[in-house]
Structures are given as structure tokens and as C-alpha cells.
Amino acid sequence: MNTKPEIMVSVCCITYNHEQYIAEALDSFLMQKTGFEFEILVGEDCSTDATRSVIREYAVRYPERIKLIAHPENIGAIRNQVDVITRARGKYIALCDGDDFWTDPEKLQKQVDFLETNPEYVICCHHTRVIDENEETVYLKKTPVSMEFDYQDVLLGKREETRICSLMIRNIDAVRAVGQESWYFDTYGTDTLFKLYALANTGKKIFVLPEVMACYRLHTGGIWSMIDSRIRKTRMVSDFNLTIKNFKYSGLMKKELLKIYIRQYFLFDLRNWKINNAMNTIMNLL
């Protein structure tokens, strides 16, 4: 009796209007050298360019590896992400958006090896090179080091080198349940809230491997990276308020969150005449 081998990793990619980038992302997934089976799930969110056609060509060439999830209408990045994750069959999920790509052919193997032998971690990340539209390096840590973060760290904004294109996470109910939280669909920096939720629900930690194994791309079509600074700050304030409303924290952590709000967001709210918002945030943290 022939049975299909068990899937160890589900590569989950969401994409929208990434015609000029998606092939590089797919090639970086396909080049992975592993001692296990992995699948590639691509959620294509009704792009207005040729993104879907590019993915379809790859899916035809690699039918056992790539599955195109073609949405008939645009559902937005968060719903696209949740939909793709719920389809994942792997023990682990590796995330990468369609405008980013991996650079190390052993990335998946290294992350699986780590998570298989370190059960106290729910997420494994690694260092990332940040590039612009001209492929020029904008950021790269010269000497990568291993790091770890727990729930309190991420709650207080400590999450260096945990970009979504580096993230591998355990495919468990405590992680997938984020798709059942209504507030999650109102987030902007969704990857941060996703990591925070996973840590809160499992009591486990994030580990960052001391290697550069992916590229994160800054470009004008990016959902977050190249938007107007005032809009970005407004969205950061919104995410901060969603965080303090939906996550638990001690009295000591509450004081630290209040310091963060005063230092980073309070004057911004006042300057934009969001006085009631500012007062509500402060009252929630007192």
C-alpha cells in the first residue's frame, strides 16, 4: 500500500501584486535541501497584476510541492494568512510573504533541527538582510548572535530579528486559534501580534539562530514598510491599544507599558487631537 510521506513543514506564503518578486520567493522555497517532506502553500489574494499567472506556472511544474490557493476576491492580508495557515498539514509552519525570499538552502532543516530538540520554544527565527527596491542592503547585522525572547519581552517591544520571513512556528491548536480572535483582524503589525499570541497561549519562547538566511524587501507596494510615517504611527498606536486590551500583564508590566505609551505615542495622540484616545489608554494602564 502506497502512502504519502508525512509533511514536516508547511511553507505558507501570502501574496498580492507581487508579480516582480514572487518567482524569487518561490525559487528560494524550492531550493531548500531537507531530510523531510515539505509543502508550499501560496495564498494569492486576487492580484491586479500577473502574480497569479506566475504562481500557476510554478504549480503546474511542481504539482507535488506547490499548491496555489486562488481567492476569487480580495480578502485582505490577515484573512489570507489565517486561511493558508488553517490548510497547513506540516508539524511546523514556515512563513514568508511573496515579496521576500530566503537565501540559505538549509534554512528549513536548521530550524526544524532546533525545534525538534528544544521543546521550550514555540518559534524559531533567524537574522535577516533588509534590502531596498534596487537590491541594495539597507540593514544587516554585522555579527549575528543567538537571542531569545519570552512573552514579556515581546509585549514590551523586544523582538529583534524576528521578521516574518524568518519565522518558523509549531503548527498546534494554541497557535492556530489566533484566527478565532476577532481583534486579530483589526491589527496592522499583524506578525507581532501573532508572535505575542503564540507566546501567551503556549508559555514558550522565541529563539533566534545566529545566521542570516533571508531577505526582507522594502518597496513602495509593501503593506507596512514604505507607508507614510504618520499613518504608520497611527497604526502602531492602534496595535498598542489592541495589545493592552487583549493580553494579560502584571502590575509591574503595566507600569512599563504606560512608560512606553508616554514615551512613544502620547504626544502623537495629542498633536492629532486624539485626546480622548490618549486619556482612555492612560486610564487602562493606571
From TrEMBL:
Keywords: Transferase. Residues 10-165 form the Glycosyltransferase 2-like domain. One of its GO terms (molecular function) is hexosyltransferase activity. InterPro entries: Glyco_trans_2-like, Nucleotide-diphossugar_trans. It comes from the Bacteria. Pfam families: Glycos_transf_2. PANTHER family: GLYCOSYLTRANSFERASE, UDP-GLCNAC:BETAGAL BETA-1,3-N-ACETYLGLUCOSAMINYLTRANSFERASE-LIKE PROTEIN 1. This is Family 2 glycosyl transferase. It comes from Pedobacter steynii.
